[in-house]
TrEMBL record:
CDD domains: REC. Gene3D superfamilies: 3.40.50.2300. Residues 5-119 form the Response regulatory domain. The lineage of its organism: Bacteria, Pseudomonadati, Bacteroidota, Cytophagia, Cytophagales. This is Two-component response regulator. SUPFAM superfamilies: Alkaline phosphatase-like (SSF53649), CheY-like (SSF52172). GO terms for biological process: phosphorelay signal transduction system. The keyword Phosphoprotein applies. The modification 4-aspartylphosphate is found at D54. Signal peptide: none annotated. Keywords: Phosphoprotein, Two-component regulatory system.
Amino acid sequence: MQKYHILWADDEIDLLKPHIIFLNNKGYEVTTVTNGIDALELSNKTTFDIIFLDENMPGLSGLETLVKIKEVKPFVPVVMITKNEEEHIMEEAIGSKIADYLIKPINPNQILMSIKKLLQNKVLVNDKTTSSYRQQFAEISMTLSDKLDYKEWIDIYKKLVHWEIEIDAVGDGSLKEILLSQKSEGNQQFFKTVKTNYEKWINDSSEDKPVFSHTVFRKKIIPSIKQEKTFVLLIDNLRFDQWKVLQPLIAESYKTVSEELYYSILPTTTMYARNAFFAGMMPSEIEKKHPGFYNGDEEDLGKNNMEEELLRDQLKKNGLDIKFSYQKVTNLNQGKALCDGIKNILDNQLNVVVYNFVDMLSHARSDMEVLKELAPDESAYRSITASWFKHSPLQELIQLLSHKKIKLIITTDHGTIRVNKPHKIIGDKTTNSNMRYKVGKNLGFDASNYLMEIKKPESIFLPKTNISDAYVFAGDELFFVYPNNYQKFVQMFKDTFQHGGVSLEEVLIPYIVLEPNR
């Protein structure tokens, strides 16, 4: 065990000798002083791992000593020990960044627990996380070897994300590699499940099937609207793991009532999945109602310009003649304007905001070398998401809504996956540019266990421009690359985040119901 050095200041230190002997026997080195001035002088000269201060010392009080120590040694944990249980003393100590607060009389084990919590917390958490994951590793592996249904895949993915966040926190590289390998295996098995069942799920009239993009609004959101005013925040391209790092930040304003995952339709892109979300219809049904809707490439931003109209039609179709608003935020100024004008829409029964930051981040990652450096992997990607949120108008918006006691639903249209396995494909000039799925005529590609070809798009309610159009979706960590300038594009897009295909991260997406903290 590392040798820790403790400074203990108490004007009755002689009475605490049994405690000091106890700590010595546990391997801790303890230096004692009887007043705040000596404690301050010693702490400036010597490096201590933790400092214990009696609150009621003659001369310089414990609180005064604490403030002066923090000016010079802001990162050294200081524990206040006192007989005084007055609330204002506790509040003042907490406000002065006290690490712990113990009420006399204290026993040696209380002191030991405080030391372990403050100095050995990370080691103890690391050890526990490692042993717990190794235990669950075998359990998850056995589950992955079974034939899982759509509900079981949601449970497995939640477990994998839980361990991803936990292992991130402890920083164990070898454990992270094991988990990434297990998640990769999970994605391969999930792809097979979707490839086998997707057409059946989409065409099944029974209720025993996943909630999809085109049914989530009717099944989940409309019942909420009928009961109370509801604010829907759709953060484009938000993965479940990104939600998990935003959750503790949002918890300051809202508590999570339910945390579900639903299935994005294929392709897992904005022009298909998000339009289906707002229309309550599959893409070919939207195309039938709005001829030419899906002509051209998905990079045409106009493909999502009818969302408000699609939403209005869906509400009307479900018998809801209500006052609602729809807004889209694609930059900082629009986010600020939304916050400034929030009071103008709070009387609506339904408000919907599409927030595009995360989607822009994933696209920008392949365009900007500096962003590649900042987000080399999933861990960094999550970190950037959290950092952005802390300084964004979105956090302010959520705080404003919580003050008005508005029910909040946070969801998305699809996720994204980091790709690193290039797969050659041949298409003509009308073939789309997405790297996780292709649609076109006469597509040429080598067979793979992790490609899903749909020769009859109408079988899964997808539109086609030409009579011979087919779709092909990538699974695993594959991404499509044309033969021309092959190496250049492989180097450009390898280890970037892409969407449109079939993976746990792209398909299983968050649907979160929150209520304001009372």
